[in-house]
Automatic annotation (TrEMBL):
This is Transcription initiation factor TFIID subunit 8. Belongs to the TAF8 family. Keywords: Nucleus, Transcription, Transcription regulation. GO terms for cellular component: transcription factor TFIID complex.
Amino acid sequence: MNSPVVKTPGSPALDPPGAPDLAEVNEDVALRAVQRIVSSELRHAEFDTAVTSALHRLELETIAFVEQIFQRAHEYANHASRARPLATDIMLACKEFYGMEIKHLHKFEMLSKKRRLESSEPEPLILIPPPSRSPSPELLASDDEGVGPSVPTTLRMLPHSQFLPPLPPKHTYLRTPASPPRKAALPSLEKKLKNASLVQESLKNLLLATEENADNEDGEILGAVVNWEPTVYPRKRWKLGTS
């Protein structure tokens, strides 16, 4: 049985967080994220309160800053024939508009890490249930312990069968359906015989028709040979006159 996994604050995360689904990031979600960023930066700058209009103006300036950086980075990507901007495009855009270098960004990253460590509290232990296992396949019943392994009759007649390894226990076999019995080939054989008889009958009719035509042609030829006299000598014509 699998035991639950214990997750402590110092242990690495089991599954690293992935990118958010774009379908779930709508305008309201993005606006709340910007408000949290602005509020966090104001707290770290030791501001206790802020006017609502000023806070709204800071939010708009933050959104305009991000859009301007993204637009410029996208232009760099288009000049390089890329479908989407890379990190280098964003770095060039930051350097062009605001003169921000990599070392400056690294300093801000270190400050944000320090803030997170200072404000972080020890998290309680979280018990994560183990993943559910797939169901086991259906197995055969176990063998009786007091009965020795039975040797099939098909293996008893083999030479040196005593040196063959024993069969595994029954509970290790998978229950599979028996193969369906083969159907007799009588219908196909009868169909072939029927086709053969039809072909034989067709050939017989064809031969009979051919013999009748041959007899007629032979009769015409023989008749012309027997009555050859009219074709050689012209018919004698009688002249009728007055006496």
